[in-house]
Design brief:
Chain lengths: 342, 322
């Protein structure tokens, strides 16, 4: 099993390289750049910025489109590029390759590079500030999802088609269909403004974590409940459950020892992607509760063409997803002895 | 005559279905004596397994409904016993083994866990003591190297070995009644013979009774003292197995015997299948449920269910024409 885990960990790196490359190409191909602003900056400033952030490579300009060298206004540059489209394209690809190599070199050294939009901060600083917040929030959401979901699903399965089942499944349906941006404000209304139990926003103490965690986790709790119920009902029909009853085991042992492991398999499989999603933050929940996490960068960075920040978010997400799936596979192997590590 | 160990009287197991009731077991009476093997024979769906589920409280309720005049085991009526009391009997005084050892053992738990829990629950043993007894029992049912194999999972055993594990599990508490529900159906023929031999040896040793549920008359021959033939939730014929094999009375029993290939029969004797299908237990025909498939049916058979009557010292049959 250790060999299996090591091999899977080694396998993560090529996947990350693909993710890195693909998101880099997407960011470059998308129209517009990080230094386009409504109020244009002077051409000299823009050129210096682009040189500093490797959006412009003097060597490539000299090689493919020498006319670009020197300070040009955007209109002049556009005219030059239109006059020789092939050279312009070659220059862009060349610059992109340089930039790609530069960023890849940074990544290898564990440096996500400077943010293109917030020019006084590095991407590492953003992540260092946002990640702990997002992780705490995600961890609490996972705890809620598992705590509420497993119990509700188990109860529903044991009391199939009776009122606890109906109650749990109605709650699960609500949990899945009520969106975050409705649930969040409702929870604030009830628990902060009404009952005064929890603060409505900000990120200071443990009590600040509760409502956003619940909001973020509710939909996942609902899925976990439905998966647990479905998994348990599937297992309870199996022959070996009849055997367990024929052995005279008390119902508690029949359910918890004989049925639960098999019933949890679908939940565990689902937890991989679910945890990855929870640990990368949610822009909606962070906005509602004014939580300084990673979720907001997800959207902002892409819209701002903040290449380094957007790519860092994508790569960090990919790491979470890959690690979570690895953990899921290991846990599945522990739960089900028939699984082999090849 | 030896003492009765289990006495089932007029047992019913009903399940509700759309617009009616499915009578899986429809008034079954059975006796099992101490030390004997009773074979319960019938096609799939004839209610053989459901009868035992009904007796042991293994019918899911709801939706199932179990009632009758009684199921007396060692003097206690199991139909009126509490669930807690039944749990104390199941796996302890009455043990069951099932058809398919692939699915009847829990794939997620080691053999050790599945064996020791029986002793923990019924005998209050600690895990360590239970483990030693379990190893002993595995050796007894012919599993080589039990100290090592007990820590393995069911998928690491072959089909025959798994059925041996099932039997070991059933015998741990020295039950006085072993219910073997199609114990050889899922196994290769050579393995079948080994398992049947093991069951024979088991009965000699534990000095208990066996109910052998099967659709395979080849399994019954030489393994059962008495036979009860079931059809559509009822017992249609009962008697010592030699007599039933030699002179079957009920047309269904005769049909069953005629449809079994025999090595000692004359080469020309054709294999005669019983025409048609067993009836749907929620829509039984009027009168005798075998009537639509019966070669000897008369007008009376369509009107009334034939009562069970005595046909010899130990024989009973439910048929108008036999």
């Amino acid at each position: 099993m250790i060999r299996f885990v090591l091999r899977r960990i080694l396998g993560i790196f090529p996947i990350l390289l693909v993710v890195f490359t693909f998101s880099f190409v997407l960011m470059r191909v998308a129209p517009g750049g990080p230094f386009d602003a409504e109020k244009p900056v002077p051409p000299e400033v823009k050129r210096n910025l682009e040189l500093r952030y490797r959006m412009r490579e003097p060597w490539c300009e000299a090689r493919f489109l020498p006319a670009l060298q020197g300070v040009r206004s955007p209109d002049e540059e556009r005219a030059l590029r239109r006059a020789s489209p092939w050279a312009s394209r070659a220059e862009r690809v060349c610059t992109g390759l340089f930039q790609y190599g530069w960023m890849l070199g940074n990544y290898v050294r564990g440096d996500f590079g400077p943010s293109y939009k917030y020019k006084d901060r590095s991407v590492n600083e953003f992540i260092r500030a946002g990640m702990p917040v997002t992780l705490q929030l995600g961890l609490l959401a996972v705890t809620f999802a598992l705590g509420i979901g497993l119990v509700a699903g188990l109860v529903a399965a044991v009391y199939q088609n009776r009122w606890p089942d109906h109650l749990a499944m109605i709650a699960a349906l609500l949990g899945i269909s009520v969106p975050n941006f409705v649930l969040g404000p409702v929870l604030i209304l009830v628990f902060s403004l009404g009952l005064l139990w929890f603060p409505p926003a900000r990120w200071e103490s443990l009590s600040h974590v509760f409502l956003p965690g619940l909001t973020l986790g509710s939909a996942y709790a609902a899925y976990v409940a439905r998966l647990t119920r479905g998994g348990m009902l599937e297992v309870v029909r199996q022959d070996f459950i009849r055997t367990a009853r024929a052995k005279g085991l008390p119902e508690r042992l029949v359910i918890l020892r004989h049925a639960l492991r098999g019933g949890l398999l679908p939940v565990v499989s689902y937890l991989g992607p679910a945890m990855a999603a929870l640990f990368t933050g949610s822009i909606v929940v962070e906005r509602i509760f004014n939580v300084p996490g990673m979720g907001r960068y997800f959207v902002d960075a892409a819209i701002n063409r903040d290449i380094t920040l957007a790519m860092a978010v994508v790569v960090v997400n990919a790491v979470f997803l890959l690690v979570a799936n690895l953990v899921v596979d290991v846990v599945l192997g522990i739960l089900d002895p028939r699984v082999r590590y090849e | 005559m030896s003492e009765l160990l289990l006495q089932v009287r007029n047992l019913h197991v009903h399940y509700p279905v759309d617009g009616g009731v499915s009578r899986a077991v429809d008034g079954v009476s059975l006796d099992v004596r101490r030390g004997e093997t009773l074979a319960v024979v019938g096609e799939s769906g004839s209610g053989k397994s459901q009868t035992m589920y009904g007796v042991l409280g293994l019918v899911p309720r709801p939706p199932g409904r179990v009632f009758g005049d009684g199921a007396y085991f060692e003097g206690e009526d199991l139909l009126r016993a509490s669930e807690r009391r039944l749990r104390g009997i199941r796996g302890n005084r009455i043990a069951m083994i099932f058809q398919d050892p692939m699915t009847a053992l829990n794939p997620f738990l080691t053999v050790e866990r599945q064996l020791t829990e029986v002793l923990e629950v019924h005998k209050g043993l600690r895990r360590k003591e239970a483990r030693n007894l379990a190893i002993e029992m595995l050796a007894k049912v012919g599993i080589p190297d039990p100290e090592r194999r007990i820590d393995q999972y069911p998928h690491q055993f072959s089909g025959g070995m798994r059925q041996r594990v099932m039997i070991a599990m059933a015998l741990l508490c020295r039950p006085s009644l072993l219910v073997a529900d199609e114990p050889t159906t899922a196994l290769d023929v050579t393995i079948q013979a080994q398992i049947l031999e093991l069951l024979r040896a088991t009965r000699r040793e534990m000095d208990g009774s066996i109910i052998l549920i099967t659709h395979d008359l080849g399994v019954v021959a030489g393994n059962a003292d008495r036979i009860a033939v079931m059809y559509a939730g009822r017992v249609v014929e009962k008697g010592p197995s030699r007599e039933i094999f030699e002179s079957p009375l009920h047309p269904y029993t005769r049909g069953l015997l005629a449809s079994v290939p025999r090595l000692d029969a004359e080469q020309k004797a054709p294999l005669v299948p019983i025409p048609g299908q067993p009836p749907d237990p929620s829509r039984l025909p009027s009168g005798c449920p075998f009537r639509p498939r019966c070669p000897a049916a008369t007008a009376r058979c369509a009107q009334e269910y034939p009562p069970t009557r005595s046909a010899g010292p130990e024989r009973e049959v439910a048929c108008w024409v036999a």
